[in-house]
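Memo to structure team: turn this sequence into structure tokens by end of day. - J.P.
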Amino acid sequence: MTAQLLDGVALGQKLRAGFKLKADELAAQGVRPGLAVILVGEDAASQIYVRNKVNACAQAGIHSERYAYALDVAPQVVFDKIAELNADPKIHGILVQLPLPKHFDADAVLEAIAPTKDVDGFRAENVGALMQGQPCFIPCTPYGAMKFFEDAGINLKGKEAVVVGRSNIVGKPMAMLLMHAGATVTVCHSQTRDLKAHCLRADILVAAIGKAKMISGDMIKPGAVVIDVGINRIQEGPDAGKLCGDVDFESAREVASFITPVPGGVGPMTITMLLANTLESAERAASA
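Reply from structure team:
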């Protein structure tokens, strides 16, 4: 068996095809969707992510504003900008690129964003709504993963799902979404005993642990669907510098039925769902 690729670039393009039309329709009603992105510091990966998001906005007909600050900026400066953006009717989504420098309280920064503009879905209010099955905005990476299942016609009801990773950004909301879709969910983490045994039970395996090639083919149930959220850079050997996921792709693809590649899998879908959330926020503003 060789797994069928879940192509995030292709699915993202498919979904984005209607975004510009929707954005232009909203603009005709006097509401051009707008996203503000805040970047603190000069982390190379963060700069790439922000640039990709800004470019994606332009292609989708979404107005974007980028605010970049030095690594040593006073947190109050960022809080003041968020307050300004919260009050700006031209902005429907506010994104603070993570991670933030150590002198920031990241939770406080995220909580400063108005719930109606929290298009990342990270605020406690939105997290609580997700727990209840009534989210205002779904966190973009898990949202993108769910779109893979939907597009491929994968029925999650009654399936055994294992999520490796318990972060607030991916692991926990991913587990909630799978549970709401009818799957029986196990969440594994750094203290889980016998991770392999848990993974081998999974019909749906989501790897979001942040360790390169941690999940090998012999840890995957034959026919499982594998969603690899990890983005790691290989440190040594002939492939040093290349990107890879948390899953050993070459061995896993011989066992799984479906698998996401890295790069080109979950990453493009994360940006796609950010655009979707921003459009949704603008639609709410237009109908208010």
